[in-house]
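cron nightly-structures :: item 1 of 1
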Amino acid sequence: MKKIKNITRMEYGAPHGWWVRFKYDKKSYSKFFNDKKYGGKQFAFLSAYAWMKDTKKKDGIPDTPYLVGGGARSNTGIRGVSYSSSSKSYFASWYDANGSPAATSFSVSKYGDKKALKLACEKRKKMEALRLTGYVTPVNTSRGAHTWDRKKYTKEELIEILQKKAAQLGRTPTIKHFRKTRPNHHKFFRTFGSWNKAVEAAGLKINDNTQRRRRRLHQT
């Protein structure tokens, strides 16, 4: 059965069933669907899925496979839009589909109070719409710039990313294919210990150049 976001299978101990859990705007939603109560594993899952869909629709929660940030900090009463008295600016803040935070400001001195607020609201709305389509903030490659991918990837997620890249290329990807991406090659090194170990874990063939270097080192 295909894995669905926010629905977890519980089989570690009785009772068995499906657990629906998600958060939005600082509110938690949770409900357990017992196999026996709902007529078996499949019917319990369908009930859990229907409840999740109905609840999200009722409370106006975006139904998306990507991260839903919910309530961002605000002192204006508008989610994701805040005012700084020290800089005299309105700030729009948001998250991309990987959960990486971002923000931009609009000066009251430059735009005036009403226009600065309007621009911040429009920016927040635009970036939220992009996030729900899977938008990821591009890595800033300009000299001296530093960007951090704060998302924590599981081994399974990294393996899947490698396998998808291999399918696109028609061959095993190399480190250079992940130098300016999210996740970048450092994520694979930290998780697996080396690039080749990550490649092997994904069931891919190690590149010929690497194999030749290994043979030369072994012969010497």
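cron nightly-structures :: done
The radius of gyration is 23 Å.
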